[in-house]
Amino acid sequence: MERLLAKERDIGNSIRFEDIMEEVAGVYSRVMKDGDMEAGAWSCGMVAGLISDIPTVADLIAGIMEQADMIIHDRLAGLTQKGGSLVA
């Protein structure tokens, strides 16, 4: 991205795809298959803007389990308190 932004600054409004092709063409496979994170700019979707931390796998799983526990106990508690039943 830094290389793309530098080219955009240098070339300005007359920038063309050919000017940035080296940074974007074929990058996805080099990043995803070869693990070359410096290959160039690649799309990671809008969700990337929602990432606020990079937890360890253990922390991620612990967080997921904590959320699941909260859902089970808080949201589904009404079923058992009102005489409802959970069918497996």
Compile the SSE list and pairings.
Layout: H1 2-11, H2 17-24, H3 27-32, H4 57-75, H5 77-81
End-to-end span in angstroms? 50 Å
Mean pLDDT score: 82
Approximate helicity band: 40-55%
The tally of helices reads 5
Largest beta sheet, briefly?
none
Strand % is under 5%
Nearest-angstrom radius of gyration? 23 Å
Query: What gross morphology would you assign?
Result: elongated
Unreliable spans: none
Number of strands: 0
Which sequence of SSEs, written as H and E, runs from N to C?
A: HHHHH
Question: What structural class should be given to the helix and strand makeup?
Answer: mainly alpha
Describe what you observe in this structure.
- Helix content is 55%, strand content 0%.
- The protein has 88 residues and is mainly α.
- The longest helix has 19 residues, at 57-75.
- The N and C termini lie far apart (50 Å).
- The model has no long low-confidence stretch (mean pLDDT 82).
